[in-house]
C-alpha cells in the first residue's frame, strides 16, 4: 500500500498532507496545484468498515471502549495508505 500520487503530475502526496485532508477536505498538489477529492468509494468503504468493526466489537463484548479507541486510532493513522483521490473538475 502506497500513498497516492497526483493524477496530473505524478508527485507523491506525503502522509502529513493526506492526514490534513482526512476530514474529506480537498487535497491540493504542492507542485501543479490540482485539487483532489476523496472518491465516493473510499467514503463508502470507511463507513462500512467502521460499522462492521463496531458490530463485531458489540457482539463479542471485547472491551468495547478500549477496542473502539484502538480501532479509531489505527484507522486515523492508516487512512493515507488506503484513501483514493480523484482530480476535481473545474466547471466554468
UniProtKB/TrEMBL annotation:
Keywords, alphabetical: Membrane, Transmembrane, Transmembrane helix
Record keyword Transmembrane helix present: yes
Membrane-crossing residue ranges in chain numbering: 41-58, 64-83
Protein's name in the database: CXXC-20-CXXC protein
Organism encoding this protein: Lederbergia citrisecunda
Amino acid at each position: 500500500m502506497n500513498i497516492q500520487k497526483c493524477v496530473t503530475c505524478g508527485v507523491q502526496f506525503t502522509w502529513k498532507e493526506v492526514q490534513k485532508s482526512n476530514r474529506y477536505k480537498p487535497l491540493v498538489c504542492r507542485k501543479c496545484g490540482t485539487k483532489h477529492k476523496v472518491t465516493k468509494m473510499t467514503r463508502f468503504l470507511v463507513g462500512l468498515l467502521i460499522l462492521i468493526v463496531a458490530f463485531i466489537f458489540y457482539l463479542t463484548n471485547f472491551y468495547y471502549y478500549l477496542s473502539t479507541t484502538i480501532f479509531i486510532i489505527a484507522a486515523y493513522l492508516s487512512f493515507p495508505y488506503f484513501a483514493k483521490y480523484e482530480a476535481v473538475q473545474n466547471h466554468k
